[in-house]
Amino acid sequence: MTTMSDAATPFITTVDSKTLILEQVTKKPGIRYRELLRQTGLANGTLEYHLKMLEKMYRVRVERHEGRRAMYYPISFSSDEAHIIGYVRNNVARQIVSFILGHDLCTFGEIVDHIKRAPSTVSWHLKRLSEGGIVSVRYGQDYHLYSIINNNLIEGILKKCEESFGDKIADRYYEMFGEL
């Protein structure tokens, strides 16, 4: 995008637009298109053009979830990391994952009590996390036990992206483990 409001304002060039986009994608891995529009202030067509160019140049990774939602990642993120971030960028899902990480085998009731959300909301997120290969479920007669499938990978991703989530859930999780 090229603008010229006065002589003191420098031109915003194609390189500047690409740099601006890359900064946002690096700062917020898994960022969605609409959020990129808001954060960069670029016009819709301009952003779309530069994202396609960055993808062709292998500077950003694009993951499309459920056939429609595109999320953008730095090229340094693996497909596994992108897959997990696609789930934990949601605040409730991240709270559930953080709680299970901190307490390992958890019952549904413990998760609901901690998250303070409706049981149906927690159930929906647990089902998605389970189908996504992030949470495993051990079925019992009286209750189900939930655990994280790959603790080290999930912990690493939460730590790597904690600043991009914009809340304190990951911070509390790491503070808790720092005390151990």
Radius of gyration: 19 Å
Mean pLDDT: 82
What portion of the residues fall into strands of 2 or more residues? Answer: 5-15%
| Sequence of secondary-structure elements | HEHHEEHHEHHEEHH
Low-pLDDT segments = 1-11, 167-180
Number of strands: 6
- From the spread of the alpha carbons, the general shape counts as elongated
The portion of residues assigned to helices is 55-70%
Number of helices: 9
How many strands, what sense, and barrel or not for the largest sheet?
Answer: 3 strands, antiparallel
Structural class by helix and strand composition? alpha+beta
> Span from first to last CA?
51 Å
Q: Strands of the biggest beta sheet: in what spatial order?
A: 1-3-2
Could you please describe the fold and organization of this structure?
The chain is an alpha+beta fold and 180 residues long. It is built from nine helices and six strands, in the order H-E-H-H-E-E-H-H-E-H-H-E-E-H-H. The strands form two sheets. A three-stranded antiparallel sheet has the order 1-3-2, with helices on both faces. Strand 5 and strand 6 form a beta hairpin. Helix 4 (79-88) packs across helix 8 (151-165) and helix 5 (91-103) runs parallel beside helix 9. The protein is elongated.
